[in-house]
Write a structure and sequence with these properties.
Elements: H1 6-26, E1 43-47, H2 52-63, E2 67-72, H3 75-87, E3 98-102, H4 108-120, E4 127-130, H5 150-165, H6 167-172, E5 176-181, H7 205-226, E6 233-238, H8 253-260, H9 268-280, H10 282-293, E7 301-302, H11 318-331, H12 338-345, H13 348-354, H14 363-366, H15 379-384
Helix pairs in contact: 2-9, 4-5, 5-7, 7-11
Bound molecules: NADP nicotinamide-adenine-dinucleotide phosphate (NAP).
Family: Belongs to the short-chain dehydrogenases/reductases (SDR) family.
Pfam families: adh_short
InterPro entries: NAD(P)-bd_dom_sf (IPR036291), SDR_fam (IPR002347)
Length: 385
C-alpha cells in the first residue's frame, strides 16, 4: 500500500510547523504551571514517568495528593526520583503516595506481567496515562522483542494492550479515564493496517513515529465506541505541544543544544499542563460525554492549550480504524471481543452501583480553580459537525 501523498504530507508538515510556532501564543491564557488541586481520591498509573512530560505530570499529581504509580522500565531511576520528591516535601506535610512498578513497553510479556500484578490487587483505577513514547531520530528500523517495529510497539501496541488489561480496574474506578499522550505529528502519519508490525513500507524515523501516533488515534476511536457510556470510562487523546524533553536524545549533542535553546518550545512543566488537565478536570469528562451523546464517532482530542482540537483528516477514516482495531488485537494476542468479555465479567452498572461515584475534581474544594481553561468554547468540533 502506498504512503501519505506528497500534497497531504506537506499540508501535515505545515500544520505541525504552524502549531509549533503558535503554541505559546495559543496557550497564553495558561499559567506556566497548573495550580495544585486536591486529588487524594484519585489512583493514577502513568507510564514513562522518569523523564520529560511524564515526570512533570507524575510529580504534579503526587503533590496534589493522588496515589500515583510510576510505570517505568528504569526502576532505579524512578526510585531515585521518588526519594528526591519525598525529601523535597515540606516539614509536617504527609509523604507522597507514590509507588514504582516495572514495565518495559518493548516487551508485550512485560506489559502482561504488569497487568497481572496490578489486577491481582483489585484496586480501583481512576486514571491511566499512556505517556511513554519513543522517537528514535537516527538509525535503521529496529524491532522489539516481539518482532514488531519499535515505535509502533512502544507508542501504540503496548499502550493498547496495557489499557485493555487494566480495563477491569478502570471499571472499578469508574468514572475513570484513559489519557493518551499523542502528538501533532500524527498529521504526517499513514497507517497500513496490514503492516502495523512494519516491514512492507520503506522505513524512516519520522514515519515510524507519526504512523504510530496516527494508529493510536484510530484505535482509540474504536475503543471508545466499544465502551458503553454507562461503563464510565472515557478515552481522551491529548497533544502536549512541542516540548524540550529527552525525546531528542538520539540526536548529536550540538543539535540537542540548539533544540533545548528554542524559546518557542514548551518546558516539560508547560507540556504537562494539557496532560494534567485531561487527567483531572471534570469538564473534560463532561465534554467527552457530550460528544458521545451527540453520536460523534471520534475520540475527544485536546490541544496543548487545553482546548478541544481537531485530528488530521487521516484520523477520520472509521473503516481504517476498524481494521487497525482488529490488527492491533491480533498483534497483542487478544480476542476481537476482549472488551465485551471484560464488560460481561465486570457489569458496568453493578460496578457503578458498588463503588462510590466520585467526581475526579470535587466541586466544593476546587470551585472555579481551572475554569479559565475551557471558557472559550470549541470551534474545532463545531467545525467538524
Ligand atoms: N517532547 C515533545 O515535543 C512531544 C511532542 C508531542 C508528543 N510527545 C509525546 O509525549 C510523550 C512523552 O515524551 P517526552 O517528550 O516526555 O519524552 P522523554 O523525555 O523521552 O520521555 C519518554 C518516557 O518514556 C519512557 N519509555 C521509553 N521507552 C519505554 C519503554 N520501552 N518502556 C517503558 N517506558 C519507556 C522513557 O523511559 P526511559 O527514561 O527509561 O527512557 C521516558 O520516561 C511521548 O508519548 C511523546 O511521543 C512529546
Amino acid at each position: 500500500m502506498a504512503g501519505l501523498g506528497w500534497f497531504d504530507w506537506i499540508l501535515g508538515l505545515l500544520r505541525v510547523t504552524f502549531d509549533t510556532i503558535t503554541q505559546r501564543v495559543k496557550a497564553v491564557h495558561l499559567p506556566r504551571q497548573l495550580p495544585l488541586i486536591p486529588l487524594s481520591h484519585m489512583t493514577c498509573i502513568i507510564t514513562g514517568a522518569t523523564s520529560g512530560i511524564g515526570l512533570e505530570t507524575a510529580r504534579h499529581l503526587a503533590k496534589s495528593g493522588a496515589h500515583v504509580v510510576l510505570a517505568v522500565r528504569n526502576v532505579k531511576a524512578a526510585k531515585n526520583l521518588l526519594e528526591e520528591w519525598q525529601s523535597g516535601q515540606e516539614d509536617g506535610s504527609s509523604p507522597l503516595n507514590v509507588e514504582v512498578m516495572e514495565v518495559d513497553l518493548l516487551s508485550l510479556d512485560s506489559v502482561r506481567k504488569f497487568g497481572e500484578a496490578w489486577e491481582a490487587r483489585k484496586i480501583p483505577l481512576n486514571v491511566l496515562i499512556n505517556n511513554a513514547g519513543i522517537f528514535c531520530m537516527n538509525g535503521a528500523q529496529k524491532l522489539s522483542k516481539d518482532g514488531l517495529e519499535q515505535h509502533m510497539q512502544v507508542n501504540h501496541l503496548a499502550a493498547a494492550l496495557l489499557t485493555i488489561l487494566l480495563l477491569p480496574s478502570l471499571l472499578r474506578g469508574s468514572p475513570s479515564r484513559v489519557v493518551v499522550v499523542n502528538s501533532m505529528m500524527h498529521h504526517l502519519g499513514f497507517v497500513d493496517p496490514e503492516d502495523l508490525q512494519g516491514g512492507k513500507r520503506r522505513y524512516n524515523c519520522t514515519s515510524g513515529y507519526s504512523d504510530s501516533k496516527l494508529a493510536q488515534i484510530l484505535f482509540c476511536h474504536m475503543l471508545q465506541k466499544r465502551l458503553p457510556i454507562e461503563a464510565g470510562v472515557d478515552i481522551i487523546v491529548v497533544n502536549p505541544g512541542e516540548v524540550k524533553t529527552n525525546v531528542a536524545r538520539d540526536l548529536p549533542k550540538i543539535i540537542q543544544m540548539g533544540y533545548h535553546s528554542l524559546f518557542i518550545l514548551f518546558t516539560p512543566t508547560e507540556g504537562a499542563r494539557s496532560v494534567l488537565f485531561c487527567a483531572a478536570d471534570k469538564k473534560v469528562q463532561e465534554y467527552a460525554r457530550a460528544l458521545r451523546g451527540l453520536g460523534y464517532p471520534l475520540v475527544p482530542y485536546f490541544g496543548s492549550d487545553c482546548k478541544p482540537a481537531s485530528v488530521a483528516h487521516q484520523a477520520h477514516d472509521m473503516e481504517k480504524a476498524q481494521l487497525v482495531w482488529q490488527q492491533t488485537l491480533k498483534l497483542v494476542d487478544l480476542p476481537l471481543d476482549c472488551i465485551e468479555l471484560v464488560l460481561s465479567e465486570n457489569d458496568p452498572v453493578e460496578v457503578i452501583e458498588n463503588f462510590k461515584v466520585i467526581d475526579s475534581y470535587p466541586e466544593d474544594e476546587n470551585e472555579g480553580a481551572l475554569d479559565f481553561l475551557m471558557n472559550d468554547e470549541d470551534d474545532a468540533v463545531t467545525e467538524i459537525f
